[in-house]
Amino acid sequence: xxxxxxxxxxxxxxxxxxxxxxxxxxxxxxxxxxxxxxxxxxxxxxxxxxxxxxxxxxxxxxxxxxxxxxxxxxxxxxxxxxxxxxxxxxxxxxxxxxxxxxxxxxxxxxxxxxxxxxxxxxxxxxxxxxxxxxxxxxxxxxxxxxxxxxxxxxxxxxxxxxxxxxxxxxxxxxxxxxxxxxxxxxxxxxxxxxxxxxxxxxxxxxxxxxxxxxxxxxxxxxxxxxxxxxxxxxxxxxxxxxxxxxxxxxxxxxxxxxxxxxxxxxxxxxxxxxxxxxxxxxxxxxxxxxxxxxxxxxxxxxxxxxxxxxxxxxxxxxxxxxxxxxxxxxxxx
Length: 333
Ligand code: UT7
Fold this sequence. Notes:
Elements: E1 3-12, E2 17-19, H1 20-24, H2 31-38, E3 42-44, H3 54-69, E4 78-82, H4 94-101, E5 107-111, H5 117-130, E6 136-143, H6 156-159, E7 165-174, E8 180-188, E9 196-197, H7 207-212, E10 222-223, H8 225-246, E11 256-259, H9 264-273, H10 285-288, H11 295-305, E12 314-321, E13 325-332
Parallel strand pairs: 4-5, 4-6, 11-12
Antiparallel strand pairs: 1-7, 2-3, 6-7, 8-13, 9-10, 12-13
Oxa(dethia)-CoA binds next to helix 2, helix 6 and helix 8.
């Protein structure tokens, strides 16, 4: 088996900053409520005429990750693209990233695992690299939430949470046996699929039926927030524990924990449970909101750029979200 590691990281966020104050002009909400319940201060939403999409933002992040890895685009052997806000119903956005990057006809795989999408993507990339099938796999998470949110008081519980943006990582074969991705673990529990969902349009109810029944709002995200919260804190903790145990490590070994940025209160709960200090966790939901598949690369890249992750550090990533799906990645940086 080969060793795999993250060799490059890159992010892209739209310039347009939307503060909690801005939201309070669109719906009955307040900076106080949003910060107290979620930690979010602002998020990025594309300007509607910007032309940005999940795949175009993903491609911009990918360009940076490839440059950061110090490789050429033609060295990418496979694209993995995670999003819950695709440009098209089909085809998936992976092929659009391939086109935008001008890559050769490499494979493009789409991941539909929402907030856990990047963890699933890293796991798939890790398998391809470890088995020797590919040398460089591009993993991209891109999200365009702002066009699909109910920005009225009716949709406020969900609308205040989500932000647009993208992040990417290159997962590469490595000669260094002592560093790289140590383990990945993936989980799902479909009995809660409807607890966090956009149900329609889909093949259970296509556009004409949705349009005929617009009051049902099934085209906006629905979330049973408290149920999701309760499961999130349990599954985050399990995922971390499982990753540590698989590598004969304990919580004392964690140098940096990068949680999916769902809610600062969830991250803080997990931080406390594992006895992690402020220097052992990185959150940036305050600036970007929840960017689902993009949130982990956005936080990981920032932590690296701030010098909070150093060579040899044990980095633990965990995510939980719609599906329900959850998982972890444990890496020696
Ligand atoms: O990344 C995917 C995974 N997602 C998550 O992990 C999210 C998990 N869930 C959560 O983070 C929280 O459930 C939320 C932040 C979404 C909501 O917080 P909460 O403490 O569960 O609030 P709630 O939904 O129970 O609502 C409490 C009150 C309600 O008013 P009443 O009934 O007490 O009068 C809501 O109508 O807050 C009201 N409310 C708001 N008020 C101002 C709901 N949303 C808002 C809002 N602004 N945006």
